[in-house]
Amino acid sequence: MIQIPKGTKDVLPSQVHKWQFVEKTARETAELFAFREIRTPVFEHTELFARGVGDTTDIVTKEMYTFLDKGNRSVTLKPEGTAGVARSFIENGMAGGVLPAKMYYLIPAFRYERPQAGRLREFHQFGVELYGAADPAADAETITLADLFLKKLGLKQVRLELNSIGCKHCRAKYNEALKEYFRPHLAEMCPDCNARFEKNPMRIIDCKEEGCRRFTAGAPRMLDYLCDDCKAHFEEVKALLARAGVAYEINPSIVRGLDYYSRTVFEFVTSAAGAQGTVCGGGRYDSLIEQMGEKPVPAVGFAAGMERLLMVMEAEGAPMPEPSGTVCYLAGMDGASRAKAFELATMLRAKGIACECDLMGRSVKAQFKYADKSGAKFVAVIGGSELEEGAVSLKNMATSSSEKVAFADLADYLSSNGAN
Ligand code: HAM
Questions:
Q1: Residue nearest to atom 29 of ligand 1 (CA)
Q2: Whether 225 contacts 252, CB under 8 Å
Q3: In the predicted model, what is the mean pLDDT of residues 57-80?
Q4: In CATH, what number is assigned to the domain containing residue 359?
Q5: How much distance in Å is there from the Cα of 331 to the middle of ligand 1?
Q6: Which domain holds residue 340?
Q7: Best mutation site among 112, 206, 278, 284 for ligand 1, i.e. most ligand atoms within 8 A of its Cβ?
Q8: Residue 184 falls inside a structural domain
Q9: 380 sits in which H/E element
Q10: Is the pTM of this model over 0.85?
């Protein structure tokens, strides 16, 4: 038997209502803040991610699903959503349109990682990107959106961790300090960190190797190197979050795993569901558009991992809506009444009432059993006498009471008795 690829998952019909609930909550929350959905391709030119996400990141150096297409072009399944949206922002001339440009997306993303609970090779993100606003209010609004989204999902044990990684000017000084600090330890650090030391020393802070973590704990903190402008920006973000009643903790070791960030970075974390505790991450990225060869446009955004959110909701026992069942099952006793059941089902569906009738040639008893299992609220039985009377015998499955309802009145009856 051909099996599902490692690190991927099916979402079965019995579980899909949970996904739909999270997706609906995501859309509703984003739209409350006047963000509009953007849809970009699942694959892009590889070059976009090398330049956009950064060629010193684990994502680009180790994790991308890259292949040559039949025209010998190198393409990559998107490992995240930001670079594709940035490409679209540029290509569609959005900098010349209404700003800020506020966009959200629900996407599959692909990273060749070692799979474990909450870490997949195909996973799904809800993300938002806001272009054109350098103001700290844009950072605060984006974070507030994420906070409201998580609250609406009923999550109570998720904490917001906040940091600032400064701008290219203050970061240059910080990188020097980091180099000075790490230089004597380089021989004991992993080959990746040795490469990071040259290209992007701040990336060392994010190393997961035990050998390197011994040194990162005591490393200089970016917060101590912020220039006056970055410091003032960060203070204002914190003040606005306080005004919005969004609680946060400062975590100076958040540097994020992608290269495009500047100033505010944040993660929503929890220990409710094992090792993969970051359910949402993001920050400001004022130099990405410039890095892609355009005039700079300030930007801020985040992405939340859907699989992780669902895991944490499960672990926290967050209330989940029930899957919606059919309203009415139409059971026919013989040929003529089955045909009537089919006709009535067509009429009910046209009026927006979810219903089913038998497709398996089952006995009435077996049809009842199926209707019960499928969670139908009503069963409308049709036999010879019902055909003569022009009315179904309608059984309310919750109360077991039955009554006759004329064919012509069935839709109205079901609508006013909990059909929708
Ligand atoms: P990221 O931190 O790489 O950021 O991913 C965001 C979220 O996606 C993570 O917090 C996590 O919940 C989820 N995630 C990442 N990798 C996996 C995986 N292998 N399996 C399951 N879930 C995963 C970004 O992707 C940035 N584009 C976020 C952003 C948007 N920054 C600014 N705008």
A1: 302
A2: no
A3: 95
A4: 3.40.50.800
A5: 49
A6: 328-419
A7: 278
A8: no
A9: strand 378-382
A10: yes
